Structure formats: C-alpha cells, structure tokens
Amino acid sequence: MREKRLYRPIINLFLELGYHNVEKEAPIFRTLKTGKRVDLLFINDTKKAAVEVKMRDWEKALFQAYLNSYFFDESYVALPQDIVNKLDFTIFEYYGVGLIAVNKKHAEIVLKPGDVSWLI
Q1: Could you tell me the residue range of the domain that residue 24 belongs to?
Q2: CB neighbours of residue 27 within 10 Å
Q3: Per the domain annotation, does 16 fall within a domain?
Q4: CA torsion angle for 30, 34, 36, 38 (degrees, to 10)?
Q5: Bridge partners for 49 per DSSP
Q6: What's the number of domains the chain is made of?
C-alpha cells in the first residue's frame, strides 16, 4: 500500500476536527524553493497542522515531523495501525510529535502533540 492511500482517512479526521483547508504535498516555504514539503497540511481559523505519512519508516517520519513542528502549530506522524501497535510512544512524546493510526477507512489520533523543546 502506498502512502497516498492513507490520505483519505486522515483528511476525513481533520475535517471532522474543524479544519477547513487541506493541502497535499504542501511546500514549507511558498517563496523559497527548498524542496521541503509536508505530506498533508491542515488549516483552520487559528492553527496549522502538518502530517507526515509513512508506511513503515517511522523514524524518518518522526525526524520530518519534529522539523515541521518548528513551522506549524501541531505536527503529527501518520502510520498504519499495525505499525503504531508496535511502537513505544515515549520517543514521540519526547519530541512533542503527535501520532495517528490509520487503516483503510479510519484514522485516529492516538497521541496528541506536546510542547516542543528544541534540542541543541
């Protein structure tokens, strides 16, 4: 299954949460050509939430989401439910990144993002 097949349940989740604008493969900077993009970006009247979607490589997704938290109000990693079931959430909590479990028809926030402490 490709990452984009997980998009629909995630989009539905954020629409239910009151986000009204959805961007796929959104650039972090509109005016600079950095090549850095967010898989899914959700916008409502008060905040922006970024979601990095991966099928397996949760460590890469966590790194990307941690960087995204510098630019957006909330940052999440979305993974298939069976991968999430095997994870220790402690590292996500440490980096202040939220976690979303996804199956073919449903997505659920299993860990809300916390405060981000920028580590030096």
Answers
A1: 3-111
A2: 15
A3: yes
A4: 0
A5: 42, 74
A6: 1
pLDDT average, residue stretch 77-99: 96
Which phi and psi angles does 33 have, rounded to 5°? -95, 75
- The CA distance from 15 to 3, in Å, is 19
Gyration radius (Cα) of the chain, Å: 13
Give the tens place of pLDDT for each residue, 59-83. Answer: 999 999 999 998 899 999 999 999 9
Q: How many alpha carbons fall within 13 Å on the CB side of residue 113? A: 24
What is the CA angle 29-39-50, rounded to 5?
70
Q: How many CA atoms lie within 13 A of 106 on its CB side?
A: 4
Which residue carries 């202040």 as its tokens?
Answer: 96
Could you tell me if 20 and 44 are in contact, meaning their C-beta atoms sit under 8 angstroms apart?
yes
Q: Could you tell me which residue, 61 or 36, shows the higher pLDDT?
A: 61
- Three-state SS for 11? helix
- Residue pair 48/73 in contact by the 8 Å Cβ criterion: yes
**Would residue 120 count as lying in a domain?**
no
- In the block, residue with structure tokens 């995204």: 68
